[in-house]
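Database export, one record per block. Field names are fixed; values are copied verbatim from the stored entry.
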Amino acid sequence: MVQSNFPGPATSRNLAKHLGISNSLLWRYFDGMDDLLAQVYLTVVERTNRRISESISQRHGVDAVKAMLDELLPLTDESRVEAQVVVAFWGRSATSPTNTASVGLTEMNVWTTLMSRLVEDAVNLGQISIGENVSTADLAELLVSSATSVQIEYAIRRDTRIVKRRKELMTSFFLPEVA
């Protein structure tokens, strides 16, 4: 996985240089930029899933919901680089003639299902309340899609203050703690 100190634009030459291999060797392993980006994207998803699992393993309720959001949002050097990769992959996939319109849906569905369970736990613990016409799945979908939007916003603006502010807003509006 490309480290957070990746130099310059994400070109194949920069990537090969960063990995300490020749550009031609890089292309022995990948069929093209789409294949390379897809493999890096899958690596990012695996790493994110691992961090989420570790982060929520001993937490419950609102604490677990916030911990999962922390792993989805670009809050660390590593996750900021990953957000750039993910957004680049989504953008390239969206304009690809072979796009099947399912890019990222598996991860989003898995994250939304997990978030729904965490929100339900928080509701059952009396830590948050949701409206009568709102389900835990609705709130979970809103939280995960909001985190995705923050990744896009960060990839475009590269402003960590915005990420921190969006996190504050998400947790204050969507996850008001009951005293």
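Remark 1: The mean pLDDT is 85.
Remark 2: The helical segments are 12-19, 23-29, 33-56, 61-72, 77-94, 105-124, 136-157, 160-174.
End of record.
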